[in-house]
Design goal:
The complex is a heterodimer of chains A (274) and B (289). Chain A is 73% helix and 0% strand. Chain A has 274 residues and is mostly helical. The longest helix of chain A has 31 residues. Chain A is globular. Chain A starts with 6 loop residues before the first helix and ends in a 6-residue tail after the last helix. Chain B has a two-stranded antiparallel sheet. Chain B is globular, with a radius of gyration of 24 Å. Chain B starts with a helix and ends in a 5-residue tail after the last helix. Classes of the chains: A mainly alpha (274), B mainly alpha (289). At the A-B interface, helix 1, helix 4, helix 5, helix 6 and helix 7 of A face helix 1, helix 3, helix 4, helix 5 and helix 8 of B.
């Protein structure tokens, strides 16, 4: 910088930015605080200092069997991500290293499937799930979440794979490496960071998906999105409990999200902004 | 050089993804199209018959349909306006030298990772509740009557919640773009005597144009599908005041068991989404490579 930043400017920047950041973060902070209050404290008016009780956390488990939707969320998010990777890694690999004239078109077409509104296929998917007994099953929903995130996963992997220098692969081929060896010993180690980022982003997206998870579950396969949504009925007005359930529902993803800021930008903009 | 063998292997490797997405795209859409021409109600499936364009006519003559289209547009445009302007402002601010920049960034992007039902219920209960919410406490502090947000301004309240969720996304992308701006260019402009405002208009804004385009496109796709936030707060009401197209179709298909009507609405949603996609792509096409 040509111009030295005075301490005063820096202090003002800091004050303004921190105030704004805390206002934006406030609903999350207040949820965490409320989760540590008793139910009567929770509706007793604004108070930033709770009594630090964990009774609400115990209550969501004992009264609402919280562990079940939580595990459903884990299984759906991780399961759909692994399924998507199994399909997407070979496809992205092929398009990145053996591109044809149509590769660009195929990629654009895949992107366009993401533009189809979910609600447009609500009726057939709902009926298919009803008829085939997939309704309220984890396997059905896992496949659904895999399908809706597949275009993003392929795109993201594609942009990562393209950065792997093709010369290395060619050198390996010259040395007589088979395609299988090429993938296992050369490509995979170089691709692991990209695959890990893709995985992280997809788990976040699948964890928070709130249309199909609510439409296609009732109790057995209901993940946290559907479980929390059931708190919207008037008799569910227990704020401390709602806050405890919410805190546990967002904490793992919030922490993952903090570590994946860069990947998020790349993944959600289909590599258009890096 | 790719040999014929690797080429055919590549085809095999691409195939599962392409076939899956093809099935995923064609089969349900074809079914939706077919159902949209049927009189088909799950409460009375024996009476299913060919309906021609009845379902479309029904949608078209229903005042709720136009209200929901209008609400959809207001919701999308309202959230875009808030997140783009707010995102640019916050990105410019965070880009300044300060203490604890990393933590500020983390705090600002956090709402994006909150699942929609949690975001909506927290805002509905703890922030906007007319009796016990934080806004009501603030109103009491200033001696004003608290506002019953979801009863009086249902759509606006939902816009606020959705904008809170997407502001971090816009900020993060615009900040990433801002940080890739060449520092030397900024200095040169500064040396040439360009003020803060003209530097922003002639240097920063054009540099961010691509990122802004991307934010608009991606957010629009997601904002057209807002559902859970409405379900847990207003349930589309009062009346149809906060019903968007997604919620209207959900009502028809799931609450009224009207398969034909829901399907016709779905086809309309596809047309609308395509219209928006084409319109946006064209309007901003020159900014995308």
């Amino acid at each position: 910088m040509a111009r030295a930043v005075t301490t005063r400017t820096k202090a003002i920047n800091t004050a303004v930015a921190w105030t704004l950041a805390l206002v934006i973060f406030f609903p999350i902070l207040y949820t965490i605080i409320t989760s540590l209050k008793t139910e009567s404290e929770a509706i007793a008016g604004f108070d930033l200092i709770p009594s630090f009780t964990i009774e609400s956390y115990i209550a969501v488990q004992t009264q609402n069997d919280y562990f079940k939707p939580f595990m459903n969320s884990v299984i759906l998010a991780v399961g759909s991500t692994i399924l998507a990777l199994i399909v997407a890694i070979p496809a992205a690999w092929a398009m990145a290293f053996s591109p044809t004239k149509r590769t660009k078109d195929i990629l654009m077409w895949m992107l366009s499937t993401k533009m189809m509104p979910a609600v447009a296929v609500l009726v057939p998917i709902y009926l298919i799930f009803l008829r085939t007994g997939l309704m309220d099953t984890r396997i059905g929903l896992t496949v659904m979440l895999m399908l809706i995130n597949l275009p993003i996963v392929i795109w993201m992997l594609y942009t990562y794979f393209r950065e792997i220098p093709g010369e290395i692969l060619e050198a390996a081929r010259m040395d007589g490496a088979s395609l299988w060896n090429e993938i296992v010993y050369i490509l995979t180690p170089m691709a692991v960071p990209g695959i890990a980022s893709t995985m992280l982003l997809n788990i976040i997206l699948a964890w928070n998906e709130s249309f199909w998870t609510i439409q296609l579950t009732t109790t057995n396969a209901a993940p946290l999105t559907a479980f929390i949504a059931s708190f919207s009925s008037p008799q569910g007005l227990f704020w401390a409990k709602l806050s405890a359930a919410s805190t546990l529902a967002i904490a793992p993803i919030l922490i993952m999200g903090w570590f994946s800021q860069k990947q998020l930008v790349r993944g959600l903009t289909f590599g258009a902004v890096k | 050089m790719a040999t014929r063998q690797t080429q055919s292997l590549a085809t095999i490797m691409r195939a599962p993804a392409i076939i899956l997405l093809m099935i995923w795209m064609v089969v349900p859409l074809a079914m939706t199209l077919y159902f949209s021409f049927l009189n088909y109600n799950l409460l009375n499936p024996a009476n299913t018959s060919w309906a021609g364009f009845f379902n479309y006519r029904y949608f078209y003559t229903d005042p709720a349909f136009f209200e929901s289209i209008w609400n959809t547009l207001v919701l999308v445009l309202g959230v875009l306006l808030i997140t783009i302007i707010g995102g640019i402002a916050i990105a410019l601010l965070i880009d300044q030298p300060m203490f604890g920049q990393g933590i500020v960034r983390i705090l600002v992007i956090s709402p994006f990772f909150v699942m929609p039902p949690v975001a909506a219920l927290v805002w509905k209960n703890m922030i906007m509740n007319p009796s016990y919410g934080v806004f009501a406490d603030i109103a009491h502090f200033f001696g004003v009557a608290p506002v019953d947000w979801f009863a009086q301004y249902p759509l606006f309240s939902i816009i606020v919640i959705v904008a809170w969720q997407w502001l971090p996304f816009a900020t993060l992308i615009l900040l990433t773009s801002l940080q890739s701006l060449d520092g030397e260019q900024k200095e040169a402009a500064e040396m040439d005597g360009a003020g803060v405002v003209s530097r922003f208009i002639y240097l920063t804004l054009p540099h961010m144009a691509r990122a802004i385009t991307v934010v608009i496109l991606i957010q629009t796709i997601f904002l057209l599908g807002v559902y859970a936030e409405i379900l847990v707060t207003t349930n589309g009401g009062p009346g149809y005041a906060s019903t968007n197209l997604v919620f209207l179709i959900y009502r028809a298909a799931r609450l009224n068991f009207d398969i034909g009507g829901g399907a016709a609405g779905g086809i309309i949603a596809v047309v609308l989404a395509n219209f928006v996609a084409i319109f946006l792509m064209r309007a901003v096409g020159k900014n995308l490579d």
